[in-house]
Specification:
Elements (H helix, E strand, L loop, with lengths): L6 E3 L8 H10 L5 E2 L3 E2 H5 L18 E6 L3 H13 L4 E6 L4 H4 L12 H14 L4 E6 L9 H11 L3 E5 L23 E4 L5 H9 L4 E4 L9 H5 L8 H16 L1 H16 L5 H8 L5 H12 L3
Parallel strand pairs: 1-9, 2-4, 3-4, 4-5, 5-6, 6-7, 7-8, 8-9
């Protein structure tokens, strides 16, 4: 069984922001976490409408900052900024399948189609920083182009320390079960990603030759899943966890942005519980933070 520093929290766009990482940290103080992806253009341009451009990671422990983009120079500059901000390593996104990233921006999963550009980006980022650099990618663009091993070879030649492999192609998006291939003769360690939600999944990945696992969507509504996989009990006071998470989101974003943003988290936390459908309907009509706290307390029976 892997150790706690081999079980990662994945970068999830719109989810693994600083408040959510703070909640994960309460249950997994030493686990490696990855930020939601950060645009190199936005970061280098210091765009003020994106708060994560200004995060300081010095107090976050073992956190890797993930960047995406197709401009070699800007990717290197972004890596330097994140290193200075206290990131423990840099992760390059080479697997995001959404059109605005993978097609229109020529970044993310697009780099699986352009190994020359991918190699240039990896070389530039590795040279730009003194901290480790990793990549996160997929099996390939589609069923006919599952050439992830070629990209991993280039990564090894570029000085990339490790790679995370998501067990789907870009064409699959997030549909259907992940299919993790056997790892053999890879020049760098490979972390398994895709449908990792239990200790059994971790054991399977280890048997396939992976050097660790990365939990993604299993985190939603379950920020304690990393510790649970390691055999620890889930919290008995979930409602109080939800309230703390809400406080962190309010502190970070302010009420106007935080309340509507938190509705999805409230829904995930309540999934599978009695009357959760009615709770979600109620929460989706709330725009005041105090009313939201009351609704959470009532649902989880907090006096």
């Amino acid at each position: 069984m892997f150790t706690k520093n081999q079980i990662f929290a994945a970068p999830l766009a719109g989810i693994t922001d600083r408040p959510f990482r703070r909640i994960i940290r309460e249950f997994s103080p030493d686990a490696p976490l990855v930020t939601e992806m950060i645009s190199c253009h936005s970061l280098v341009g210091a765009h003020k409408n994106c708060l994560r451009n200004f995060d300081n990671y010095a107090d976050e422990g073992n956190v890797g900052a993930q960047i995406f983009g197709a401009n070699v120079a800007l990717m290197a500059d972004a890596a330097r900024i994140l290193q200075d901000a206290g990131a423990k390593w840099i992760d390059i996104n080479m697997g995001c399948p959404v059109p605005k990233v993978a097609t229109r921006a020529g970044a993310g999963a697009y780099l699986m189609q352009d190994h020359v550009l991918a190699g240039k980006i990896m070389d530039a980022v590795v040279r730009a920083v003194q901290i480790p650099v990793s990549i996160k990618t997929r099996l390939g663009w589609d069923e006919q182009h599952q050439d992830w091993t070629d990209l991993i070879r280039i990564a090894g030649e570029s000085g990339i320390r490790f790679a995370t492999l998501h067990g789907r192609t870009r064409a699959q998006l997030y549909v259907g079960p992940a299919r993790l291939p056997v790892i053999e003769d890879c020049p760098i360690p490979i972390i398994a990603n895709g449908d990792i939600k239990s200790a059994d999944d971790v054991i399977m990945a280890e048997k396939l030759g992976y050097s660790g696992v990365m939990v993604g969507r299993g985190l939603m509504g379950c920020p304690w899943i990393l510790s649970e996989i390691m055999g620890e009990m889930p919290p008995s006071d979930v409602g109080n966890v939800v309230l703390r998470h809400l406080e962190y989101v309010l502190e970070y974003y302010g009420e106007k942005t935080a309340v509507p943003m938190f509705r999805k988290h409230a829904a995930w936390y309540s999934a599978g519980m009695k009357n959760s459908s009615d709770f979600r309907i109620k929460v989706n009509q709330i725009s005041d933070s105090n009313l939201l706290k009351v609704a959470i307390r009532e649902f989880w029976g907090i006096i």
